[in-house]
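Format is sequence with structure; example below:
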Amino acid sequence: MKKRFKILAIIALVIIVCGFVIKSQIRLVKLNDRTTPHYSINVDCNLIQFQTIEDIAVYAKKKTAADLSFSWHNDIVNGEANCVGYAQYAAVICNELFKRNNIKAKAKPIVGCYYFRNTNIHNLITKFIDNQQINNFIKDHDYVEIVDSESNVVYSFDPSIYDLTYLDFGD
């Protein structure tokens, strides 16, 4: 019994280490800003005081994941969105909370691509899928970029991938 437990523990450790190594090799690369229509949402967190940009980003990522379900189309009013809608929704939450907490920062949706080492994952996937509708859907990916107006430090996070995998990719 002890031998079986040790083998299972070693396998689990190897899987965890491999996961961290692979995750460390994945990065988001910005292509351009996403032009989106302006809209507002009711951010129900009046009792919460945020001190940092990071705290607001974490809250926005989790609230977006709780409020939306992943879909092929954007219907944010009914709680469905693709990566474009997730990024829009999370950016609106961030900007509202920056304003309420007097934090000088701005969040915006960004169009980008995921890279594993030096390979564009989106281009790699489209080579193997012979469906134009799917290829158009996965040709790029939206995430949120936050610029701290005082220090010009740039943060990023991906609310849709977080919702689907509970993994954080970004800075």
The chain has six helices and seven strands.
